[in-house]
C-alpha cells in the first residue's frame, strides 16, 4: 500500500515537472525576439485584410466556374402527379354521337395523370456567355493583383510601426543610460555636499535633472506600450500577446545609398497594374453589353413518359406512353428602345474616366519615387550630421565631467553638457526613425516591399 502511494506521489511530481517545463517553454516562445521578417510573415498570415484578399482570390475561381456553366448543357428532370376529382366538361355537337341538333357535355381526360421527363438546352451561339467567361478569367487576375497590393499595404504598415517601436525602445535604452550616469553624478555631489565641498543648490539641480529623466523614461515606456499594441493590431495577433523587439545597435544601421539607383518602371507597379486590369474589365463589360445586339441560338431537347387512368397510376392501372421533341431556338433582338445603345455609351464613359485615373496614377507614382529619393537623401544627410553631433556631445560631456571632478568646471557646465548629450541622442533617434521611414517609402515606390520578407 505504501509502495503504491509512493509511486503515485512520484508520478504526480513528474506530471507537475513536465507541465512546468511546458509552461516555461511556452512563455519563452511567446517572448522570443520578434524580427521584422517574422512580424511581416505573421501579418500576412493573420491580418484580416490579407486573409480577405486571399479569399477573394479563391472566390474568383468559383466565378470562372459559374461563367463556364453557362456554356455547358443545362439538364433538368421533371415529374408530376395530378388527381382530378371532377373532370371538366366540354361541349360538343350532337352529330358526333348521332344526335343532330343537340349539344352534348362530355368529360375529357382521366382522373389520374402522371408524367416524368428530362429536358436539355445547349447554347450554340451566345456572345454574352463567352464574353462573360473572358471577364471571369480577367476578374481572377484582378483579384490576384489586389491580393498582391493588399500584401504590400500590410507590409508597409507593419514595417513602419515596427521601426517606430524599435527606435523608441532604443531611445529608452539611451534614457536608462543617462539615468545611470546622472544618478552617479548626483551621488558624487551628494557626497561632496555632506563633506561641505558642494552647495545645496548643486544637489537640488542634479535631483531635478534626475527627476526629469525619470519622467521622460515613464513617458517613453507609455509610448512604447501604445506603439507595441498598434504593432500587434497590424500583425493581427491578440493585444495581450507579449512580444519582444530585438535591440539593434544604432551604429549597425547603415544608410543604403544604392537604393536610390533603382528607378522603377511604374507600369509594373501593383497600383498601376490594378487600374489597367480594371480598364480591361470595363472593356469586357462594354463588350458584354454590345453582345445584346447579336442573335442567340440554342438547342433544346425533351423526352418524357406520361401515364393516365381512372385509378392511381401504378402497374396496369394507367395507360403509359412516351414522347420526345428536339428544337432549335433562335432569338434576334430587333428593338428595345435604345436601351442597349445607352448602356454601351455609359460603359464607354466609365472607361474614359478610368483612363484619366490611370494617367494621374502614373504621374503620382513617378512623383512618389522622386519625393522618396529626395527624402531619403535628406534623411541620410541629417542622420550623418546627428551621428557626428552625438559623438561630439559625448566628447564634450566626458571632458566636462573630468573637469568637474577635478574642480576645473562648475556644475552648471556639467548639467548643460549632460542635457546637450541627451538632446543630441534624442535627435539622432528621431533622425534614425526618419531614415527608416524614408527607406520604406522608397522601397514601396520601387515596388520592392516584399523584399523585406527575405
From TrEMBL:
Gene Ontology MF annotations: efflux transmembrane transporter activity; porin activity
Coiled coil: 203-230, 344-403
Signal peptide from the UniProt entry: 1-27
Compartments where found: Cell outer membrane
Family classification: Belongs to the outer membrane factor (OMF) (TC 1.B.17) family.
Primary location recorded for the protein, binned into one broad class: membrane
InterPro entries in UniProt: OMP_efflux, TolC-like
GO CC annotation terms, alphabetical: cell outer membrane; efflux pump complex
Source organism phylogeny: Bacteria, Pseudomonadati, Bacteroidota, Chitinophagia, Chitinophagales
UniProt keyword annotation of Zinc-finger present: no
Keywords per UniProt: Cell outer membrane, Coiled coil, Membrane, Signal, Transmembrane, Transmembrane beta strand, Transport
Name of the protein this chain belongs to: TolC family protein
